[in-house]
Write a structure and sequence with these properties.
By secondary structure, the protein is mainly α. The protein is built from 2 helices and 2 strands; from the N terminus they run ααββ. Strand 1 and strand 2 form a beta hairpin. Helix 1 packs antiparallel against helix 2.
């Protein structure tokens, strides 16, 4: 969080003197270059700090996504087996009770029969 405050401070300290000069006055070249090099160093420190702080969290997130993909793969494959072509369905719709439905387009061909020939229907 403190890095977020450092960048505006560095910018203000290096760019502020440039804005205070009169139109006709030329800034000494060495001071301007020094200001920009300080600004560059401040930005490098800011990004290094962000990478150091966010690195472990990003690694944990990557590991969690890998675990999720391994667990969710069978369910997603089963779902994709039930859907013949995405172009045969309308956009998802959320009902007031929170349910989400995906309607089949009226002009879409009949879906494939997913029942096993051996399975019986109980009445």
């Amino acid at each position: 969080m403190r890095y977020v405050l450092v960048l505006p401070l560095v910018l203000g300290l290096t760019v502020g003197p440039l804005a205070a000069q009169e139109d006709g006055a030329e800034a000494p070249s060495g001071k301007v270059e020094q200001g920009f090099s300080l600004l560059e160093e401040g930005a490098k420190l800011l990004f290094r700090g962000l990478v150091d702080q966010m690195g472990p969290a990003l690694e944990d997130m990557q590991e969690g996504l890998e675990n999720f993909s391994e667990e969710a793969r069978p369910a997603l494959e089963a779902l994709l087996g039930m859907i013949d072509d995405m172009r045969n369905y309308e956009a998802p719709e959320r009902l007031p009770n929170g349910d989400i439905i995906i309607r089949r387009k009226p002009d879409a061909p009949l879906p494939p029969d997913l029942r096993d020939e051996k399975s019986e229907i109980e009445l």
